[in-house]
Design goal:
4 helices; mainly beta; 8% helix; four-stranded antiparallel β-sheet; 27 strands
């Protein structure tokens, strides 16, 4: 297999750990002088790359730049020392460099390529504070709650099903969670069941409340058989409309803020957007190369975010379907997408362990957590659990709740700092939501359990 055009020959990186952000003069250049500059210095520049000066390294070589400020995962210098293919990885013919050396490179790039301790970062500081959007949608005097729901005669499953989806009303202490051929509605304050909504289409994979809390969207189906989206009236339980006729279960879906559009996707690799008024398809998105795993309309309804099992993530004009931005950072399946209530950031979470806050204007990964839920080794178990973020949902106050394969539910503030951590005793937390008052986080487990945690 051919090697990258820009080689970091025999570059074994070594550095003494320091609390200060790494910079080129103090940390990077001494390592390059010892191990790399023979082939990439003033005397010799393989592939046109001279790393003996800061300007030369930042400029790159004959193949272009090897570092992108703030984007280690998009930087060749980082990619080729972490490449899983030994024939392509640098340094050649040697094992992968130690993880703490890789971390240093990543910190230097993500920190903005500081030249010296007194230099300014090449990545501009961004405002991550949360400011609720100005809206005319004030809290209703009487938030919608179920009133008279029909009794259901449902089959009893042999074993508890995973709680694939949970959602909370934006205005009331109301929880909706998935069950076999139905959706359960619960009072969050008393944790009492208020009733069930029938979903004979199969198992719900996605549940979403409308912005006014009056409509519930339920998407799912039967694997390798059928899939669709159903909208329910919360008060009466009436089925308002059924959207889509898929040949497999719908595993990603969302309802636009004005309730006129439904976007859905699944194993067919195509995003389909329908009118809720007519039930007719408005347009399709065919850019994805793998299963559609997550969809989300922006709070103002102008953008639609779509993601797939291969890590593809794109922003679209929600009305016309034209592409706006491609957000290339995830290396494997994107499990969840959610917009912050002010519309300023989109959060994405993936099986690669990454949790990212994307700037909605220019697509910059403003907050990028590469190991949001680190692998865990349960007591008495052999080896460790794989990394992976399974769910991500914002609360109305900008706090983000995530779940992971480390059996943890974690809260993050609007600046991306961890707030609180809650541990699952059995199974995995695979779905999450925050209550309308922001005081409780709720998670559904792979073992069918439902957990409530009161926040400090």
């Amino acid at each position: 297999m051919p090697r990258p055009s820009l080689l970091l020959s025999s570059c074994l990186l070594f550095v003494v750990a320091t609390a200060a952000p790494p910079n080129y003069e103090g940390a990077i250049k001494p390592l390059l002088r010892q191990h790399c500059l023979k082939c990439h210095g003033n005397d010799e520049q393989e592939s046109g790359l001279n790393m003996q000066t800061y300007a030369g390294l930042v400029k790159g070589g004959s193949g272009g730049p090897i570092v992108v400020p703030g984007r280690s995962n998009q930087s060749l210098m980082y990619q080729i020392v972490t490449d899983s293919d030994a024939d392509s990885r640098m340094p050649p013919n040697k094992p992968m460099i130690p993880q703490h050396h890789i971390d240093l490179i990543q910190q230097w790039i993500d920190g903005g390529l500081l030249e010296s301790a007194d230099s300014q970062s090449m990545v501009s500081q961004r405002d991550t504070s949360f400011r609720p959007a100005t809206t005319t949608d004030a809290k209703p005097t009487h938030p919608p709650l179920p009133e008279t729901l029909p009794e259901l005669d449902l089959p009893n499953p042999i074993r508890p099903l995973p709680v694939l989806a949970v959602a909370t009303s934006p205005w009331a202490p109301l929880l909706a969670l998935s069950g076999h051929e139905h959706v359960r509605l619960m009072n969050i304050e008393t944790q009492e069941e208020l009733g069930k909504l029938p979903f004979p289409e199969g198992v719900p994979h996605v549940i979403r409340f409308s912005q006014d809390g009056r409509v519930l969207m339920v998407a799912g189906g039967r694997p390798v058989e059928s899939g669709s989206v159903v909208l329910f009236d919360i008060k009466t339980g009436q089925r308002l409309v059924r959207i889509g006729d898929e040949l497999d279960a719908v595993i990603a879906a969302d309802l636009s803020p004005d309730q006129t559009l439904v976007a859905l996707g699944g194993t067919g690799k195509i995003v389909k957007v329908y009118s809720t008024l007519t039930g007719n398809e408005r347009y399709q998105i065919e850019k994805h190369t793998d299963w559609i795993t997550a969809l989300a309309f922006s709070p103002d309804g102008a953008k639609l975010a779509t993601a797939d099992r291969a890590g593809g993530l794109h922003l679209w004009d929600a009305r016309k379907g034209g592409i706006l931005l491609s957000l290339l950072e995830h290396q494997s399946s994107v499990r969840a997408l959610d917009w912050r209530a002010d519309g300023k950031f989109l959060a994405s979470a993936g099986e690669d362990g990454r949790l990212i806050w994307w700037d909605a204007v220019d697509g910059w990964p403003t907050i990028n957590k590469n190991n949001a839920h680190p692998p865990d080794r349960p007591p008495g178990a052999f080896g460790t659990l794989p990394n992976g973020v399974l769910a991500a949902r914002f609360g109305a106050n900008g706090v983000l709740a995530t779940t992971g394969r480390d059996r943890v539910v974690r809260l993050w503030n609007p600046q991306g700092d961890p707030l609180e951590t809650f541990r699952y005793e059995s199974g995995f937390p695979i779905s999450a939501a925050i209550t309308d008052d922001g005081n409780t986080v709720i998670s559904g487990g792979s073992d069918g359990t439902l957990s409530f945690w009161r926040l400090k």
